[in-house]
């Protein structure tokens, strides 16, 4: 019996672990609940009295030595692991670079195009009051055209709503600035619409406003033609159709020639050769007056477009919901742009 313990003593003495796992195995085999030490302490009871002293001392030494081994090596493995973490010569692990969202890409492109002809960006609150979103824009209470934009109202206060267009920002801009005004308001807008491939209750707009002396409809047409060519290519043509907006008179809707079929007709342009991209018009004199601008001296034009719509046309995206789902497989396709 004593001989076996002495062999174990030798084994402990010789033991040099090469890894934390090995050390842990050693610890369990000697010092664990089902380990050799517990077995030996149980066996101690049956050792004849005259041998008890020597046997007892030897197994105590064995236990101490095993414990010392464990203590001696457990820190050295920790240090080793740490030092590999901070090994400065290791090759770097590559981070995946993020990319801009397609809506941001198009927003920035629109802003840049209009920047080049002197427009600067203005921003305003997404939670608006009735006056800035509607009344100032020639849409008094009970005006039927308010129904054109299904509005989210803040329940506790019917005067407060989520802006339905960024025209509200332009109202604020006109109140705070004197003509000449050339401003562009990109931003998120909200409408209570059923979500489908073509509509969402949240979307993004860029609206533009130009006010000065002698601004004419011809200036509007020219600015929009310039925009269409910059955005969709030099050969792009535009077409204006009469329309109605309460805040502009006259008003028009603008189509661009379909560059998928070269205006010959395809299923994207529904065989019309043209795609609708924005609404526009000459700012109604009432709106100018509401915002403190002399409508006898100044005239202006305004336009507004949905960024999702432009992005769909530019990138050939058929379902608007894709812009909101943040599916990595979709977003990754824009990372090179
Ligand atoms: N505010 C309009 C909309 O949201 C767009 C528009 C802006 C139309 C300016 C004409 C002039 O639908």
């Amino acid at each position: 019996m004593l001989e076996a313990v002495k062999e174990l003593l030798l084994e402990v003495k010789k033991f040099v672990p090469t890894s934390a796992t090995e050390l842990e195995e050693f610890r369990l085999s000697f010092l664990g609940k089902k380990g050799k030490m517990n077995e030996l302490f149980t066996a101690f009871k049956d050792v004849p009295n005259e041998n008890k002293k020597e046997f007892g001392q030897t197994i105590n030494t064995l236990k101490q030595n095993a414990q010392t081994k464990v203590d001696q090596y457990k820190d050295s493995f920790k240090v080793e692991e740490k030092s590999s973490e901070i090994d400065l010569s290791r090759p770097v692990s590559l981070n995946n670079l993020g990319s801009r969202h397609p809506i941001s890409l198009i927003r920035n492109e629109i802003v840049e195009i209009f920047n080049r002809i002197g427009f600067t960006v203005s921003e305003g609150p997404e939670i608006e009051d009735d006056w800035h979103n509607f009344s100032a824009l020639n849409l008094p209470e009970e005006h039927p055209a308010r129904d054109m934009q299904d509005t989210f109202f803040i329940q506790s206060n019917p005067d407060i709503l989520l802006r339905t267009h960024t025209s509200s920002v332009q109202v604020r801009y006109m109140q705070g600035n004197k003509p000449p005004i050339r401003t562009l308001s990109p931003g998120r807008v909200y409408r209570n619409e059923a979500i489908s491939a073509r509509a969402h209750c949240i979307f993004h707009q860029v609206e533009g406003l130009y006010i000065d002396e002698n601004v004419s409809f011809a200036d509007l047409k020219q600015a929009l033609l310039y925009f269409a060519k910059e955005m969709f290519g030099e050969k792009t043509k535009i077409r204006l159709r009469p329309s109605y907006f309460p805040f502009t008179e006259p008003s028009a809707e603008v189509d661009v020639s379909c560059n998928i079929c070269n205006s010959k007709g395809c299923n994207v342009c529904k065989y019309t050769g043209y795609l609708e991209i924005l609404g526009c018009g000459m700012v109604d004199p009432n709106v100018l007056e509401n915002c403190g601008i002399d409508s006898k001296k100044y005239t202006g034009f305004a336009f507004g477009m949905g960024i999702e719509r432009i992005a769909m046309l530019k990138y050939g995206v058929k379902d608007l919901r894709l812009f909101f789902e943040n599916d990595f497989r979709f977003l990754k396709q824009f990372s090179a742009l």
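The beta strands are 120-121, 127-129, 153-154, 157-162, 181-190, 202-212, 238-245, 248-257, 274-283, 299-306. Residues 165, 167, 207, 245, 248, 251, 279-281, 302-304 surround phenylalanine (CB under 6 Å).
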